[in-house]
Design the sequence.
């Protein structure tokens, strides 16, 4: 009995020791897992590169002739003849169209006849008044009738002359808006022709008011391209900077003159869409990193000599064309351009690639 109890006690002690050992190993393993450092953060890095950066703003507008004129009728009637087609070259005074003249010719004849009659009466009354054989009232009435008839005759002749439509400027007929037989009237605002020059071209652009100070000081350069012909750069100059801001749109107007050369003159036409890029600021030979390196608007992560992350701050960073300007003493350093969004100060890094690889 005593021997059996001893064996049971010994077995119980052994089992307890085994349990304690297992528990100790489990606790030790659990503690090791809790203090294991996180794996290195994978990132891509690059070294700064010297570049020329430009700060630009782009605007779009339609090309137009600087002396473009749309002719409207000054008298009402039907078009009886057209003397020019789109594409025809014209000079100042060239006859373009004729409006039915018959009714205006009759009005002119009536007005001239009334003027001749009033002139004759005025001359007769003037002689009588000078001789003392007519009253002053008669003299004044005859004089007033003469002046009125003269004015009516002049007005009738002017309306008759307006039935012939002439070009007010030299250029090319850009559009003919009517046909023979079309009814036109000044009140309707029906256009007859649009005339303009193909050499004197310009584009009008609207820009946000925040850029007005830069334009007032003068922009360093302009690049203009017709969207249909991107391989043909154009020469542009600012002709006019509006002296006011549109309160409805908070924009101002810039008018640029386009200077065609022998090659661009062949295809440039009013109405074409242009995109114009204004160079506001130029930075030559500056050290840059891709804009993707910038976090939080001003933070950049560098890699120190031990491969750990260090956060640096940029004061008022200059951004242009997908790059950011960095201090000159950063040259030769390594900087994170991808994977920086989950970094912390002193984090261990695993370099995946980039210009540093």
Sequence:
């Amino acid at each position: 009995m005593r021997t059996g109890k001893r064996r049971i006690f010994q077995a119980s002690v052994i089992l307890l020791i085994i349990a304690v050992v297992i528990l100790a190993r489990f606790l030790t393993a659990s503690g090791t897992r809790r203090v294991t450092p996180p794996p290195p953060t994978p990132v891509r890095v690059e070294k700064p590169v010297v570049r020329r950066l430009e700060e630009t703003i782009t605007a779009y507008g339609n090309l137009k002739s600087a002396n473009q004129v749309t002719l409207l009728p000054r008298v009402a009637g039907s078009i009886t003849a057209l003397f020019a087609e789109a594409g025809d070259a014209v000079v100042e005074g060239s006859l373009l169209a004729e409006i039915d003249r018959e009714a205006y010719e009759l009005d002119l004849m009536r007005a001239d006849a009334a003027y001749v009659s009033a002139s004759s009466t005025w001359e007769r009354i003037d002689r009588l008044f000078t001789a003392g054989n007519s009253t002053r009232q008669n003299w004044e009435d005859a004089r007033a009738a003469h002046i009125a008839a003269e004015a009516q005759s002049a007005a009738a002749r002017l309306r008759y002359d307006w039935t012939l439509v002439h070009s007010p400027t030299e250029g090319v007929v850009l559009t003919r808006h009517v046909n023979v037989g079309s009814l036109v009237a000044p009140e309707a605002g029906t256009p007859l022709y649009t005339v303009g020059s193909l050499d004197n071209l310009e584009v009008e652009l609207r820009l946000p008011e925040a850029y007005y100070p830069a334009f007032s000081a003068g922009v360093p350069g302009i690049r203009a391209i017709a969207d249909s012909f991107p391989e043909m750069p154009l020469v542009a100059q600012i002709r006019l900077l509006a002296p006011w801001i549109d309160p409805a749109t908070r924009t101002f107007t810039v008018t640029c003159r386009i200077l065609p050369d022998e090659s661009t003159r062949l295809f440039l036409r009013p109405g074409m869409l242009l995109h114009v890029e204004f160079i506001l600021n130029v930075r030559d030979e500056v050290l840059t990193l891709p804009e993707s390196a910038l976090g939080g608007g001003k933070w950049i992560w560098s890699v120190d000599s031990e491969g750990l992350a260090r956060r640096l701050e940029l004061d008022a960073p200059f951004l242009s064309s997908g790059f950011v300007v960095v201090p000159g003493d950063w040259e030769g350093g390594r900087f994170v351009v991808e994977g920086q969004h989950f970094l912390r100060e002193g984090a261990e890094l695993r370099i995946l690639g980039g210009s540093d690889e």
